[in-house]
Design brief:
The complex is a heterodimer.
Chain A: H1 2-20, H2 25-46, H3 73-103
Chain B: H1 3-21, H2 28-53, E1 56-59, E2 70-73, H3 75-98, H4 101-105, H5 108-124, H6 128-147, H7 152-183, H8 188-197, H9 201-219, H10 227-231, H11 237-262, H12 267-291, H13 295-316, H14 319-350, H15 361-364, H16 366-380, H17 386-400, H18 404-430, H19 448-467, H20 470-484, H21 487-494
Antiparallel strand pairs in B: 1-2
Helix pairs in contact in B: 1-2, 1-5, 2-3, 3-5, 3-11, 3-14, 3-19, 5-6, 5-11, 6-7, 6-11, 7-9, 9-11, 11-13, 11-14, 12-13, 12-18, 13-14, 13-17, 13-18, 14-16, 14-17, 14-19, 14-20, 16-18, 16-19, 17-18, 17-19
Classes of the chains: A mainly alpha, B mainly alpha.
Chain lengths: 128, 498
Protein backbone atom coordinates (compact mmCIF):
# COMPACT_ATOMS: atom_id res chain seq x y z
CA UNK A 1 0.00 0.00 0.00
CA UNK A 2 2.83 2.40 0.91
CA UNK A 3 4.59 1.57 -2.35
CA UNK A 4 1.48 2.38 -4.35
CA UNK A 5 1.09 5.64 -2.45
CA UNK A 6 4.74 6.51 -3.00
CA UNK A 7 4.42 5.93 -6.73
CA UNK A 8 1.30 8.10 -6.87
CA UNK A 9 3.15 10.80 -4.97
CA UNK A 10 6.05 10.62 -7.38
CA UNK A 11 3.74 11.01 -10.37
CA UNK A 12 1.92 13.94 -8.79
CA UNK A 13 5.14 15.76 -7.95
CA UNK A 14 6.62 15.08 -11.38
CA UNK A 15 3.51 16.43 -13.10
CA UNK A 16 3.48 19.39 -10.72
CA UNK A 17 7.10 20.30 -11.39
CA UNK A 18 6.54 19.93 -15.14
CA UNK A 19 3.62 22.34 -14.97
CA UNK A 20 5.52 24.78 -12.76
CA UNK A 21 8.37 24.94 -15.24
CA UNK A 22 6.04 25.65 -18.16
CA UNK A 23 6.54 29.41 -17.83
CA UNK A 24 2.87 30.27 -17.48
CA UNK A 25 1.40 31.63 -14.28
CA UNK A 26 -1.78 29.59 -14.38
CA UNK A 27 0.06 26.34 -15.04
CA UNK A 28 2.45 27.21 -12.22
CA UNK A 29 -0.53 27.45 -9.88
CA UNK A 30 -1.98 24.14 -11.03
CA UNK A 31 1.42 22.54 -10.57
CA UNK A 32 1.65 23.98 -7.09
CA UNK A 33 -1.76 22.57 -6.23
CA UNK A 34 -0.76 19.12 -7.46
CA UNK A 35 2.37 19.22 -5.31
CA UNK A 36 0.49 20.44 -2.25
CA UNK A 37 -1.93 17.54 -2.69
CA UNK A 38 1.03 15.19 -2.96
CA UNK A 39 2.36 16.62 0.31
CA UNK A 40 -0.99 16.02 1.96
CA UNK A 41 -0.80 12.39 0.89
CA UNK A 42 2.75 12.21 2.26
CA UNK A 43 1.52 13.38 5.65
CA UNK A 44 -1.23 10.77 5.43
CA UNK A 45 1.34 8.07 4.72
CA UNK A 46 3.64 9.16 7.55
CA UNK A 47 0.80 8.51 9.98
CA UNK A 48 1.10 4.82 8.97
CA UNK A 49 -1.53 3.23 6.80
CA UNK A 50 -3.71 0.61 8.46
CA UNK A 51 -5.58 -1.50 5.96
CA UNK A 52 -8.86 -2.56 7.49
CA UNK A 53 -8.25 -0.49 10.65
CA UNK A 54 -11.07 0.67 12.88
CA UNK A 55 -12.18 4.27 13.24
CA UNK A 56 -10.63 5.91 16.30
CA UNK A 57 -13.76 5.88 18.44
CA UNK A 58 -13.84 5.28 22.18
CA UNK A 59 -16.79 3.19 23.37
CA UNK A 60 -19.14 4.53 26.05
CA UNK A 61 -17.64 4.32 29.51
CA UNK A 62 -14.18 3.28 28.34
CA UNK A 63 -11.02 5.42 28.35
CA UNK A 64 -9.40 3.97 25.27
CA UNK A 65 -10.54 2.25 22.10
CA UNK A 66 -11.02 -1.51 22.28
CA UNK A 67 -8.86 -2.56 19.30
CA UNK A 68 -6.16 -1.00 17.10
CA UNK A 69 -7.48 2.08 15.36
CA UNK A 70 -6.41 4.30 12.48
CA UNK A 71 -4.19 7.28 13.34
CA UNK A 72 -6.48 10.30 13.41
CA UNK A 73 -3.85 13.00 13.91
CA UNK A 74 -2.47 13.14 10.33
CA UNK A 75 -6.01 13.42 9.05
CA UNK A 76 -6.58 16.42 11.30
CA UNK A 77 -3.33 17.94 10.02
CA UNK A 78 -4.31 17.31 6.40
CA UNK A 79 -7.75 18.81 6.96
CA UNK A 80 -6.12 21.98 8.25
CA UNK A 81 -3.63 21.99 5.38
CA UNK A 82 -6.40 21.50 2.80
CA UNK A 83 -8.44 24.38 4.19
CA UNK A 84 -5.44 26.71 4.27
CA UNK A 85 -4.27 25.53 0.87
CA UNK A 86 -7.71 26.14 -0.60
CA UNK A 87 -7.74 29.70 0.73
CA UNK A 88 -4.28 30.42 -0.63
CA UNK A 89 -5.15 28.85 -3.99
CA UNK A 90 -8.27 30.96 -4.29
CA UNK A 91 -6.27 34.07 -3.49
CA UNK A 92 -3.58 33.17 -6.01
CA UNK A 93 -6.16 32.56 -8.73
CA UNK A 94 -7.70 35.97 -8.19
CA UNK A 95 -4.23 37.48 -8.14
CA UNK A 96 -3.47 35.79 -11.46
CA UNK A 97 -6.67 37.16 -12.93
CA UNK A 98 -5.80 40.63 -11.65
CA UNK A 99 -2.28 40.29 -13.01
CA UNK A 100 -3.68 39.38 -16.43
CA UNK A 101 -5.94 42.41 -16.18
CA UNK A 102 -3.33 45.00 -15.27
CA UNK A 103 -0.22 43.52 -16.88
CA UNK A 104 -1.87 42.01 -19.95
CA UNK A 105 0.15 38.80 -19.73
CA UNK A 106 0.69 35.82 -17.47
CA UNK A 107 3.87 34.75 -19.20
CA UNK A 108 6.34 34.59 -16.32
CA UNK A 109 9.30 35.70 -18.44
CA UNK A 110 7.52 38.90 -19.40
CA UNK A 111 6.55 39.88 -15.87
CA UNK A 112 9.53 42.07 -15.06
CA UNK A 113 7.82 45.27 -13.98
CA UNK A 114 8.95 45.25 -10.36
CA UNK A 115 12.48 44.08 -11.15
CA UNK A 116 15.52 46.24 -11.68
CA UNK A 117 15.86 48.07 -14.96
CA UNK A 118 18.78 46.68 -16.91
CA UNK A 119 19.99 50.00 -18.32
CA UNK A 120 21.21 51.89 -15.24
CA UNK A 121 23.82 51.03 -12.63
CA UNK A 122 25.13 53.50 -10.10
CA UNK A 123 28.43 51.85 -9.29
CA UNK A 124 30.71 49.18 -10.58
CA UNK A 125 30.74 46.62 -7.78
CA UNK A 126 34.17 45.20 -8.64
CA UNK A 127 35.97 46.59 -5.59
CA UNK A 128 34.34 43.84 -3.55
CA UNK B 1 -3.82 28.72 30.42
CA UNK B 2 -1.50 31.59 31.02
CA UNK B 3 -3.06 34.97 30.29
CA UNK B 4 0.37 36.46 29.96
CA UNK B 5 0.77 34.46 26.75
CA UNK B 6 -2.77 34.85 25.48
CA UNK B 7 -3.06 38.63 25.81
CA UNK B 8 -0.29 39.67 23.38
CA UNK B 9 -1.92 37.29 20.90
CA UNK B 10 -5.56 38.21 21.39
CA UNK B 11 -5.05 41.96 21.48
CA UNK B 12 -4.11 42.37 17.78
CA UNK B 13 -6.91 40.01 16.69
CA UNK B 14 -9.55 41.94 18.63
CA UNK B 15 -8.04 45.22 17.47
CA UNK B 16 -8.28 44.01 13.88
CA UNK B 17 -12.01 43.32 14.27
CA UNK B 18 -12.65 46.64 16.00
CA UNK B 19 -10.69 48.72 13.51
CA UNK B 20 -12.38 46.98 10.59
CA UNK B 21 -15.85 47.64 11.98
CA UNK B 22 -14.99 51.26 12.73
CA UNK B 23 -13.19 51.92 9.45
CA UNK B 24 -14.03 55.13 7.68
CA UNK B 25 -15.50 56.68 10.81
CA UNK B 26 -12.29 58.49 11.57
CA UNK B 27 -11.56 56.57 14.76
CA UNK B 28 -10.82 53.16 13.22
CA UNK B 29 -7.18 53.98 12.71
CA UNK B 30 -6.82 55.33 16.21
CA UNK B 31 -8.38 52.15 17.57
CA UNK B 32 -5.58 50.32 15.76
CA UNK B 33 -2.96 52.56 17.37
CA UNK B 34 -4.52 52.11 20.81
CA UNK B 35 -4.61 48.35 20.29
CA UNK B 36 -0.95 48.35 19.34
CA UNK B 37 -0.11 50.38 22.44
CA UNK B 38 -2.03 47.87 24.58
CA UNK B 39 -0.19 45.04 22.83
CA UNK B 40 3.11 46.70 23.70
CA UNK B 41 2.00 46.90 27.32
CA UNK B 42 1.09 43.20 27.39
CA UNK B 43 4.38 42.28 25.72
CA UNK B 44 6.23 44.22 28.43
CA UNK B 45 4.28 42.38 31.14
CA UNK B 46 5.09 39.05 29.47
CA UNK B 47 8.77 40.02 29.29
CA UNK B 48 8.78 40.92 33.00
CA UNK B 49 7.15 37.59 33.75
CA UNK B 50 9.82 35.69 31.79
CA UNK B 51 12.74 37.49 33.40
CA UNK B 52 11.32 36.87 36.86
CA UNK B 53 9.92 33.36 36.58
CA UNK B 54 11.80 31.79 33.68
CA UNK B 55 10.09 30.11 30.74
CA UNK B 56 6.34 30.81 30.68
CA UNK B 57 4.10 28.13 29.18
CA UNK B 58 0.42 27.68 28.57
CA UNK B 59 -1.45 24.60 27.36
CA UNK B 60 -4.43 25.32 25.14
CA UNK B 61 -7.67 24.03 26.69
CA UNK B 62 -5.54 22.35 29.38
CA UNK B 63 -4.51 19.48 27.13
CA UNK B 64 -1.12 18.57 28.54
CA UNK B 65 1.93 18.66 26.23
CA UNK B 66 2.74 16.93 23.95
CA UNK B 67 -0.90 16.19 23.11
CA UNK B 68 -2.32 19.67 23.06
CA UNK B 69 -1.06 22.88 21.53
CA UNK B 70 1.52 24.55 23.70
CA UNK B 71 2.23 28.23 23.87
CA UNK B 72 5.65 28.89 25.30
CA UNK B 73 7.80 31.96 25.79
CA UNK B 74 11.44 31.84 26.75
CA UNK B 75 13.64 34.94 26.70
CA UNK B 76 14.22 34.79 22.92
CA UNK B 77 10.47 34.60 22.22
CA UNK B 78 9.82 37.33 24.77
CA UNK B 79 12.35 39.66 23.13
CA UNK B 80 10.82 39.00 19.71
CA UNK B 81 7.24 39.57 20.91
CA UNK B 82 8.31 42.82 22.55
CA UNK B 83 10.05 43.94 19.35
CA UNK B 84 6.99 43.05 17.27
CA UNK B 85 4.73 45.08 19.52
CA UNK B 86 7.17 47.99 19.59
CA UNK B 87 7.72 48.38 15.86
CA UNK B 88 4.04 47.49 15.32
CA UNK B 89 3.05 50.55 17.33
CA UNK B 90 5.55 52.77 15.52
CA UNK B 91 4.36 51.67 12.08
CA UNK B 92 0.69 51.93 13.12
CA UNK B 93 1.25 55.60 14.01
CA UNK B 94 3.12 56.16 10.74
CA UNK B 95 0.32 54.46 8.81
CA UNK B 96 -2.16 56.94 10.28
CA UNK B 97 -0.26 59.61 8.40
CA UNK B 98 0.32 57.67 5.20
CA UNK B 99 -2.77 55.53 4.58
CA UNK B 100 -5.64 57.34 2.89
CA UNK B 101 -9.32 56.68 3.47
CA UNK B 102 -9.62 54.36 0.47
CA UNK B 103 -6.99 51.98 1.75
CA UNK B 104 -8.45 52.15 5.25
CA UNK B 105 -11.82 51.29 3.80
CA UNK B 106 -10.29 48.20 2.22
CA UNK B 107 -9.15 47.17 5.69
CA UNK B 108 -5.50 48.18 5.82
CA UNK B 109 -5.41 48.56 9.59
CA UNK B 110 -7.30 45.32 10.21
CA UNK B 111 -4.94 43.32 7.98
CA UNK B 112 -1.98 45.05 9.58
CA UNK B 113 -3.12 43.95 13.03
CA UNK B 114 -3.70 40.38 11.81
CA UNK B 115 -0.15 40.39 10.49
CA UNK B 116 1.08 41.37 13.94
CA UNK B 117 -1.03 38.57 15.44
CA UNK B 118 0.47 36.05 13.02
CA UNK B 119 4.01 37.16 13.78
CA UNK B 120 3.41 37.11 17.54
CA UNK B 121 1.83 33.67 17.30
CA UNK B 122 4.81 32.31 15.38
CA UNK B 123 7.10 33.57 18.15
CA UNK B 124 5.00 32.11 20.95
CA UNK B 125 4.00 28.68 19.72
CA UNK B 126 5.69 25.55 20.96
CA UNK B 127 4.26 23.24 18.33
CA UNK B 128 5.59 22.76 14.83
CA UNK B 129 2.22 22.38 13.10
CA UNK B 130 0.90 25.38 14.99
CA UNK B 131 3.93 27.28 13.72
CA UNK B 132 2.80 26.37 10.18
CA UNK B 133 -0.66 27.76 10.92
CA UNK B 134 0.76 31.04 12.26
CA UNK B 135 2.99 31.26 9.21
CA UNK B 136 -0.13 31.05 7.07
CA UNK B 137 -1.86 33.74 9.14
CA UNK B 138 1.01 36.15 8.68
CA UNK B 139 1.46 35.12 5.05
CA UNK B 140 -2.12 35.75 4.01
CA UNK B 141 -2.12 39.07 5.89
CA UNK B 142 1.08 40.09 4.15
CA UNK B 143 -0.51 39.21 0.79
CA UNK B 144 -3.31 41.59 1.65
CA UNK B 145 -1.00 44.42 2.66
CA UNK B 146 1.11 43.84 -0.41
CA UNK B 147 -1.66 44.25 -2.97
CA UNK B 148 -3.73 46.98 -1.27
CA UNK B 149 -3.56 49.82 -3.75
CA UNK B 150 -3.33 47.55 -6.76
CA UNK B 151 -0.74 49.38 -8.86
CA UNK B 152 0.87 47.42 -11.68
CA UNK B 153 4.22 47.13 -9.92
CA UNK B 154 2.43 45.92 -6.78
CA UNK B 155 0.61 43.15 -8.61
CA UNK B 156 3.80 42.10 -10.36
CA UNK B 157 5.76 42.05 -7.09
CA UNK B 158 2.92 40.28 -5.30
CA UNK B 159 2.86 37.44 -7.85
CA UNK B 160 6.51 36.64 -7.13
CA UNK B 161 6.13 37.07 -3.39
CA UNK B 162 3.00 34.93 -3.20
CA UNK B 163 4.16 32.08 -5.42
CA UNK B 164 7.63 31.69 -3.93
CA UNK B 165 6.26 31.86 -0.40
CA UNK B 166 3.70 29.19 -1.30
CA UNK B 167 6.55 26.96 -2.47
CA UNK B 168 8.35 27.44 0.84
CA UNK B 169 5.13 26.69 2.68
CA UNK B 170 4.78 23.40 0.85
CA UNK B 171 8.37 22.44 1.64
CA UNK B 172 7.73 23.25 5.30
CA UNK B 173 4.54 21.20 5.35
CA UNK B 174 6.25 18.25 3.67
CA UNK B 175 9.14 18.43 6.15
CA UNK B 176 6.92 18.46 9.17
CA UNK B 177 4.77 15.64 7.84
CA UNK B 178 7.81 13.45 7.31
CA UNK B 179 9.27 14.49 10.67
CA UNK B 180 6.02 13.40 12.28
CA UNK B 181 6.35 10.09 10.48
CA UNK B 182 9.89 9.65 11.79
CA UNK B 183 9.33 10.74 15.40
CA UNK B 184 5.59 10.55 16.09
CA UNK B 185 5.33 14.00 17.63
CA UNK B 186 5.14 17.65 16.59
CA UNK B 187 5.58 19.37 19.96
CA UNK B 188 8.96 21.09 19.73
CA UNK B 189 10.11 20.13 23.22
CA UNK B 190 8.97 16.55 22.71
CA UNK B 191 10.65 16.53 19.30
CA UNK B 192 13.96 17.36 20.98
CA UNK B 193 13.69 14.24 23.13
CA UNK B 194 12.45 12.13 20.22
CA UNK B 195 15.29 13.30 17.97
CA UNK B 196 17.87 12.65 20.69
CA UNK B 197 16.66 9.10 21.20
CA UNK B 198 15.98 8.34 17.53
CA UNK B 199 17.98 5.57 15.90
CA UNK B 200 17.63 7.18 12.46
CA UNK B 201 19.97 10.15 12.86
CA UNK B 202 20.72 10.27 9.14
CA UNK B 203 17.04 10.57 8.29
CA UNK B 204 16.61 13.35 10.86
CA UNK B 205 19.47 15.28 9.27
CA UNK B 206 17.87 14.94 5.84
CA UNK B 207 14.59 16.18 7.28
CA UNK B 208 16.36 19.14 8.88
CA UNK B 209 17.28 20.24 5.35
CA UNK B 210 13.56 20.56 4.52
CA UNK B 211 13.30 23.03 7.37
CA UNK B 212 16.50 24.81 6.36
CA UNK B 213 15.07 25.35 2.87
CA UNK B 214 11.58 26.31 4.04
CA UNK B 215 12.69 28.70 6.80
CA UNK B 216 15.63 29.89 4.72
CA UNK B 217 13.21 30.92 1.99
CA UNK B 218 11.12 32.86 4.51
CA UNK B 219 14.27 34.40 5.94
CA UNK B 220 15.49 35.33 2.43
CA UNK B 221 18.91 33.68 2.53
CA UNK B 222 21.08 33.02 -0.51
CA UNK B 223 20.02 31.63 -2.99
CA UNK B 224 16.35 31.77 -2.02
CA UNK B 225 15.93 35.52 -1.53
CA UNK B 226 14.80 36.67 -4.98
CA UNK B 227 11.19 37.27 -3.91
CA UNK B 228 12.24 39.87 -1.35
CA UNK B 229 13.80 42.57 -3.53
CA UNK B 230 11.13 41.90 -6.17
CA UNK B 231 8.29 42.83 -3.87
CA UNK B 232 9.31 44.81 -0.77
CA UNK B 233 9.57 48.12 -2.59
CA UNK B 234 6.12 47.94 -4.18
CA UNK B 235 3.49 48.35 -1.41
CA UNK B 236 2.78 51.34 0.83
CA UNK B 237 5.70 52.48 2.94
CA UNK B 238 4.07 51.40 6.17
CA UNK B 239 3.59 47.89 4.77
CA UNK B 240 7.18 47.72 3.45
CA UNK B 241 8.48 48.86 6.82
CA UNK B 242 6.66 46.19 8.79
CA UNK B 243 7.68 43.53 6.20
CA UNK B 244 11.29 44.68 6.41
CA UNK B 245 11.28 44.59 10.17
CA UNK B 246 9.41 41.43 10.91
CA UNK B 247 8.65 39.00 8.07
CA UNK B 248 12.10 37.75 7.19
CA UNK B 249 12.97 37.84 10.90
CA UNK B 250 10.23 35.29 11.55
CA UNK B 251 12.10 32.96 9.22
CA UNK B 252 15.33 33.67 11.10
CA UNK B 253 13.58 33.03 14.40
CA UNK B 254 12.26 29.70 13.09
CA UNK B 255 15.76 28.74 11.93
CA UNK B 256 17.23 29.60 15.33
CA UNK B 257 14.47 27.76 17.16
CA UNK B 258 14.58 24.61 15.04
CA UNK B 259 18.36 24.36 14.72
CA UNK B 260 19.05 24.92 18.42
CA UNK B 261 16.10 23.08 19.92
CA UNK B 262 15.29 20.27 17.50
CA UNK B 263 18.07 19.65 14.99
CA UNK B 264 21.22 19.97 17.03
CA UNK B 265 21.94 16.28 16.45
CA UNK B 266 24.47 16.67 13.64
CA UNK B 267 26.18 20.07 13.79
CA UNK B 268 29.15 18.74 11.81
CA UNK B 269 26.83 18.51 8.79
CA UNK B 270 24.58 21.54 9.27
CA UNK B 271 27.06 24.15 10.54
CA UNK B 272 29.22 24.30 7.36
CA UNK B 273 26.09 24.64 5.21
CA UNK B 274 24.82 27.47 7.40
CA UNK B 275 28.26 29.10 7.29
CA UNK B 276 28.41 29.09 3.47
CA UNK B 277 24.81 30.32 3.27
CA UNK B 278 25.58 33.12 5.74
CA UNK B 279 28.64 34.32 3.84
CA UNK B 280 26.97 34.25 0.42
CA UNK B 281 23.84 35.95 1.77
CA UNK B 282 25.90 38.79 3.22
CA UNK B 283 27.92 39.29 0.05
CA UNK B 284 25.16 38.95 -2.57
CA UNK B 285 22.82 41.10 -0.49
CA UNK B 286 25.20 44.02 -0.29
CA UNK B 287 26.36 43.73 -3.91
CA UNK B 288 22.70 43.83 -4.89
CA UNK B 289 22.21 46.94 -2.78
CA UNK B 290 25.13 48.66 -4.49
CA UNK B 291 23.73 47.92 -7.94
CA UNK B 292 20.26 49.35 -7.31
CA UNK B 293 18.99 52.72 -8.43
CA UNK B 294 15.78 52.76 -6.44
CA UNK B 295 16.14 53.82 -2.82
CA UNK B 296 13.60 51.33 -1.53
CA UNK B 297 15.28 48.50 -3.42
CA UNK B 298 18.64 49.47 -1.91
CA UNK B 299 17.03 49.11 1.50
CA UNK B 300 15.50 45.75 0.48
CA UNK B 301 18.85 44.30 -0.55
CA UNK B 302 20.39 45.54 2.69
CA UNK B 303 17.84 43.36 4.53
CA UNK B 304 19.17 40.32 2.68
CA UNK B 305 22.70 41.26 3.66
CA UNK B 306 21.82 41.64 7.33
CA UNK B 307 20.06 38.26 7.33
CA UNK B 308 23.51 36.87 6.51
CA UNK B 309 24.90 38.31 9.75
CA UNK B 310 22.12 36.62 11.71
CA UNK B 311 22.72 33.25 10.08
CA UNK B 312 26.45 33.70 10.77
CA UNK B 313 25.65 33.81 14.49
CA UNK B 314 23.67 30.58 14.21
CA UNK B 315 26.39 28.93 12.10
CA UNK B 316 29.14 29.65 14.62
CA UNK B 317 26.85 28.48 17.37
CA UNK B 318 28.90 29.48 20.41
CA UNK B 319 27.10 31.28 23.27
CA UNK B 320 28.74 34.56 22.28
CA UNK B 321 27.75 34.13 18.63
CA UNK B 322 24.11 33.36 19.42
CA UNK B 323 23.98 36.28 21.87
CA UNK B 324 25.53 38.50 19.20
CA UNK B 325 22.94 37.33 16.68
CA UNK B 326 20.09 38.08 19.09
CA UNK B 327 21.55 41.54 19.75
CA UNK B 328 21.89 42.03 15.98
CA UNK B 329 18.28 40.92 15.52
CA UNK B 330 17.00 43.56 17.95
CA UNK B 331 19.22 46.19 16.35
CA UNK B 332 18.24 45.22 12.84
CA UNK B 333 14.47 45.10 13.37
CA UNK B 334 14.47 48.62 14.81
CA UNK B 335 16.86 50.10 12.29
CA UNK B 336 15.34 48.47 9.19
CA UNK B 337 11.82 49.60 10.06
CA UNK B 338 13.22 53.05 10.70
CA UNK B 339 15.10 53.22 7.39
CA UNK B 340 12.02 52.18 5.41
CA UNK B 341 9.92 54.78 7.20
CA UNK B 342 12.46 57.56 6.46
CA UNK B 343 12.71 56.34 2.88
CA UNK B 344 8.95 56.71 2.66
CA UNK B 345 9.13 60.32 3.82
CA UNK B 346 12.00 61.14 1.44
CA UNK B 347 10.16 59.50 -1.46
CA UNK B 348 7.07 61.48 -0.57
CA UNK B 349 9.06 64.71 -0.56
CA UNK B 350 10.61 64.01 -3.95
CA UNK B 351 7.59 62.30 -5.48
CA UNK B 352 9.55 59.15 -6.36
CA UNK B 353 11.81 56.57 -4.77
CA UNK B 354 13.92 56.25 -7.92
CA UNK B 355 17.20 57.91 -6.95
CA UNK B 356 17.64 59.57 -10.35
CA UNK B 357 14.48 61.52 -9.58
CA UNK B 358 15.38 62.39 -5.99
CA UNK B 359 17.66 64.97 -4.44
CA UNK B 360 18.02 68.04 -2.30
CA UNK B 361 16.23 66.68 0.74
CA UNK B 362 18.94 67.97 3.09
CA UNK B 363 18.42 71.52 1.89
CA UNK B 364 14.62 71.60 2.10
CA UNK B 365 14.06 69.24 5.02
CA UNK B 366 17.16 69.02 7.22
CA UNK B 367 15.18 67.31 9.97
CA UNK B 368 14.36 64.39 7.65
CA UNK B 369 18.03 64.17 6.72
CA UNK B 370 18.97 64.05 10.41
CA UNK B 371 16.38 61.32 10.99
CA UNK B 372 17.92 59.34 8.13
CA UNK B 373 21.45 59.77 9.48
CA UNK B 374 20.64 58.09 12.79
CA UNK B 375 19.47 54.71 11.43
CA UNK B 376 22.01 54.90 8.59
CA UNK B 377 24.88 55.28 11.06
CA UNK B 378 23.33 52.56 13.20
CA UNK B 379 23.11 50.11 10.30
CA UNK B 380 26.64 50.98 9.19
CA UNK B 381 27.84 50.14 12.71
CA UNK B 382 29.36 53.40 13.91
CA UNK B 383 30.05 53.39 17.64
CA UNK B 384 28.30 53.89 19.97
CA UNK B 385 25.13 52.88 18.11
CA UNK B 386 23.59 49.40 18.29
CA UNK B 387 25.02 48.10 15.02
CA UNK B 388 28.53 48.54 16.37
CA UNK B 389 27.96 46.39 19.47
CA UNK B 390 26.14 43.71 17.47
CA UNK B 391 28.98 43.45 14.97
CA UNK B 392 31.62 43.51 17.73
CA UNK B 393 29.96 40.50 19.34
CA UNK B 394 29.60 38.59 16.07
CA UNK B 395 33.11 39.33 14.83
CA UNK B 396 34.59 38.47 18.22
CA UNK B 397 32.70 35.17 18.15
CA UNK B 398 34.05 34.44 14.66
CA UNK B 399 37.59 35.28 15.85
CA UNK B 400 37.27 32.98 18.84
CA UNK B 401 36.07 30.22 16.54
CA UNK B 402 39.17 30.87 14.41
CA UNK B 403 37.04 31.52 11.36
CA UNK B 404 39.15 34.17 9.65
CA UNK B 405 37.27 33.98 6.35
CA UNK B 406 33.99 34.96 7.95
CA UNK B 407 35.66 37.75 9.92
CA UNK B 408 36.97 39.18 6.65
CA UNK B 409 33.60 38.74 4.91
CA UNK B 410 31.73 40.41 7.77
CA UNK B 411 34.08 43.39 7.88
CA UNK B 412 34.16 43.89 4.10
CA UNK B 413 30.37 43.64 3.93
CA UNK B 414 30.16 46.25 6.71
CA UNK B 415 32.33 48.59 4.67
CA UNK B 416 30.21 48.02 1.57
CA UNK B 417 27.12 48.74 3.67
CA UNK B 418 28.57 52.13 4.53
CA UNK B 419 29.26 52.67 0.85
CA UNK B 420 25.72 51.83 -0.22
CA UNK B 421 24.38 54.20 2.45
CA UNK B 422 26.77 56.91 1.27
CA UNK B 423 25.41 56.57 -2.26
CA UNK B 424 21.89 57.07 -0.94
CA UNK B 425 22.98 59.99 1.23
CA UNK B 426 24.83 61.68 -1.58
CA UNK B 427 22.15 61.26 -4.23
CA UNK B 428 18.97 61.72 -2.23
CA UNK B 429 19.95 64.10 0.54
CA UNK B 430 23.08 65.99 -0.46
CA UNK B 431 22.98 66.55 -4.23
CA UNK B 432 20.55 68.99 -5.72
CA UNK B 433 17.58 67.46 -7.51
CA UNK B 434 18.74 66.44 -11.02
CA UNK B 435 15.82 68.18 -12.70
CA UNK B 436 16.24 71.27 -10.55
CA UNK B 437 12.98 70.53 -8.72
CA UNK B 438 12.61 71.46 -5.09
CA UNK B 439 11.27 68.69 -2.88
CA UNK B 440 7.75 69.55 -1.79
CA UNK B 441 7.29 69.96 1.93
CA UNK B 442 3.85 71.47 1.60
CA UNK B 443 1.82 68.28 1.32
CA UNK B 444 3.80 66.77 4.20
CA UNK B 445 2.64 69.45 6.63
CA UNK B 446 -0.73 68.04 7.80
CA UNK B 447 0.70 64.60 8.61
CA UNK B 448 4.20 65.64 9.62
CA UNK B 449 3.81 64.54 13.24
CA UNK B 450 2.39 61.09 12.36
CA UNK B 451 5.24 60.38 9.98
CA UNK B 452 8.17 61.82 11.88
CA UNK B 453 7.26 60.87 15.47
CA UNK B 454 7.68 57.09 15.00
CA UNK B 455 10.91 57.66 13.08
CA UNK B 456 12.27 59.82 15.88
CA UNK B 457 11.13 57.31 18.50
CA UNK B 458 12.84 54.38 16.75
CA UNK B 459 15.97 56.47 16.23
CA UNK B 460 15.96 57.33 19.92
CA UNK B 461 15.60 53.65 20.77
CA UNK B 462 18.67 52.84 18.62
CA UNK B 463 20.67 55.59 20.30
CA UNK B 464 19.61 54.66 23.84
CA UNK B 465 20.32 50.95 23.37
CA UNK B 466 23.61 51.90 21.72
CA UNK B 467 24.74 54.18 24.54
CA UNK B 468 23.59 51.78 27.27
CA UNK B 469 24.07 48.39 25.61
CA UNK B 470 24.77 46.49 28.79
CA UNK B 471 21.18 45.60 29.66
CA UNK B 472 20.51 44.14 26.22
CA UNK B 473 23.86 42.34 26.09
CA UNK B 474 23.11 40.59 29.38
CA UNK B 475 19.60 39.78 28.18
CA UNK B 476 20.89 38.43 24.86
CA UNK B 477 23.45 36.29 26.65
CA UNK B 478 20.77 34.87 28.93
CA UNK B 479 18.54 34.19 25.91
CA UNK B 480 21.44 32.49 24.11
CA UNK B 481 22.14 30.34 27.16
CA UNK B 482 18.49 29.25 27.15
CA UNK B 483 18.67 28.39 23.47
CA UNK B 484 21.84 26.35 23.82
CA UNK B 485 20.76 24.53 26.96
CA UNK B 486 17.04 23.92 26.45
CA UNK B 487 16.55 21.94 29.67
CA UNK B 488 14.51 24.72 31.38
CA UNK B 489 12.44 24.97 28.18
CA UNK B 490 11.82 21.21 28.12
CA UNK B 491 10.98 21.15 31.84
CA UNK B 492 8.58 24.05 31.48
CA UNK B 493 6.76 22.53 28.50
CA UNK B 494 6.71 18.87 29.43
CA UNK B 495 6.98 19.10 33.22
CA UNK B 496 3.42 20.33 33.49
CA UNK B 497 4.30 23.48 35.43
CA UNK B 498 1.56 25.99 34.74
Amino acid sequence: METLLALTLGCLVAAGVYLMLAGDLLRFLFGLTLISNAVNLAIFASGRISVGGNPPLVPDGAYKPAADVANALPQALILTAIVIGFGLFAFSLVLTLKAYGVLGTIDIDKMRLSEAKADTATTDGDEA
Amino acid sequence: MSWYLALPLMTPVLTAVMSYLLRGSGIGRWVAVTGSALGLGFALILMRQITQLGVVTGQMSDWPAPFGITLVADLFSGIMVLLTAGVGLAVAVYACGEIDDDLEDMGFFAIFQLLLAGVTGAFLTGDLFNLYVWFEVLLISSFGLLILGGTRAQIDGAVKYVLLNLVSTIVFLCGLGLLYGATGTLNMADLRLAVDSSDQQGLITVLSMFFLIAFGMKAAVFPLFSWLPASYHTPTNAASAIFAGLLSKVGVYALFRSFTLIFDNDPAYTQPILMVVAGLTMVTGILGALAQTDMRRVMSYQIVSSIGFLILGLAIGTPLAIAGAIFYLVHNVIVKVNLFLVTGVAARLCGSSEMSRMGGVYKTAPLVALLFIVPAFTLAGFPPLTGFWAKVMLVQAALEAGNWVMVAVALIVSLLTIWSLMIVWARVFWDAHPDGLEPRTADLAPVRLHLLLPIAALGLASILIGVFPNGLVVLAQAAAAQLLDPQPYLDAVLGGTP
